[in-house]
Amino acid sequence: MTKTETPLFRFAKSLTPLRKARRWFLNEIWGDLRLYWLTMLGYVPSHRVRNFFYRWCGVRLARTSSIHWRSRFFSPEGLSVGEHCTIGNDSFFDARSGVTIGDCVNIAGEVRIYTREHDIDDPYFAEVGGPVFIEDYAYIGTRVTIMPNVRIGRGAVVASGAVVTRDVPPYMLVGGVPARVIRERSHDLRYKLGFAKKFQ
Fold first, then answer.
1. pLDDT category of residue 115 using cuts at 50, 70 and 90
2. Tens digit of pLDDT for each residue in 33-83?
3. For the chain, percent helix, then strand, then coil, each to nearest 5?
4. DSSP secondary structure string, 120-174?
5. pLDDT, averaged across the chain
6. Rg for the chain (alpha carbons), in Å?
7. Which domains does the chain have, with CATH numbers?
8. Cβ atoms of residues 86 and 64 within 8 Å
9. Residue 8 phi/psi, 5° resolution?
10. What share of the chain in percent tops pLDDT 90?
11. pLDDT at position 172 over 60
12. 100 in helix, strand or coil?
């Protein structure tokens, strides 16, 4: 009897479809179910409860920082939030390629951060992208969209409604679509954030 004909080998071979089904379930069903569950969790009116489960699902969230309600995530394990940060309501984080937020960062409500997009000129509509870095003391205004492969410099400010498609230099205020430099901000920044509005 050859090695390939052993009963143990035949039994292992019979399990291959089960292994494939398990892998498909973990990659497809569980991944989407987890995102749905995190979206529903966003409606729980308690920072403590939400933050506990966000961390349990892989978000690296400092104890001094807060994420307000109804935020949504792709790949929560790719999101890292530093100390003394405040993230507003209804934010969206596509952290598939990594989103790193420094210390004392203020992100207003309804901000969208993407790390992946489709190449419209690729014959197969390939997915491309890269990580987003938001450095210490940056301020991201309401309804800002940040595209993949962008670094927001230390102390930089992005005005409400802007679409950021390229790096923002430190301490610069940018605005518009696409975002352009407007002026420089003060370099003397000493505040700490982490404000958590009750029931949100």
1. very high
2. 888 888 899 999 999 999 999 998 899 999 999 999 999 999 899 999 999
3. 25, 25, 50
4. TTSTT--EEE--EEE-TT-EE-TT-EE-SSEEEPTT-EE-TT-EE-S-B-TTEEE
5. 89
6. 21
7. 42-184 (2.160.10.10)
8. no
9. -65, -40
10. 70
11. yes
12. strand
Top-confidence residue, 193 or 166: 166
What letter represents residue 21's amino acid? A
Is 118 among the catalytic positions? yes
Q: What are phi and psi of 184, to 5 degrees?
A: -95, 150
- Lookup result for tokens 């696409």: 178
Q: What is this structure's pTM?
A: 0.83
Helix (H) or strand (E) holding 20: helix 16-24
Omega within 30 of 0 (cis) for the link into 45: no
Q: Which entry of 47, 68, 84, 118 is annotated as an active-site residue?
A: 118
Distances (CA, A) of 178 to 56, 149, 168: 36, 15, 12
